Amino acid sequence: MTKWIVLVAIIIAIYYFLIRKNSPLNRHRHAKKNNVEADIMLECKRCGTFTSSKEALIVDGQYFCSKECAEVQ
Q1: Cβ-count burial 19-53 (b if 16+ within 10 Å, e if not)
Q2: Sign of CA dihedral 62, 66, 67, 69
Q3: Given a cut of 90, is residue 46 above it in pLDDT?
Q4: Domain identity same for 29 and 52
Q5: Quick one: average pLDDT of 27-51?
Q6: Which residue, 19, 43, 54, 61, has most beta carbons within 10 Å?
Q7: 44 and 26 Cβ atoms separated by less than 8 Å
Q8: Same domain (yes/no): 11, 29
Q9: 57 with 63: CB under 8 angstroms?
């Protein structure tokens, strides 16, 4: 009886580690968790400081790190 229990446990372990982990559905779930929007770093036209695209100021098509560099009031 113990041999059968060990055999079933080995079959379940093989299924879990080899088949289930490599299934396309599981890979899709893992990819969704790691889907982070990339932040692009832009160089300030005046001082050369790199600023994230979310924080950069755009004036006349040029990127600036702050109002002082952009000379905006």
Answers
A1: eeeeeeeeeeeeeeeeeeeeeeebebeeeeeebee
A2: negative
A3: yes
A4: no
A5: 74
A6: 43
A7: no
A8: yes
A9: yes
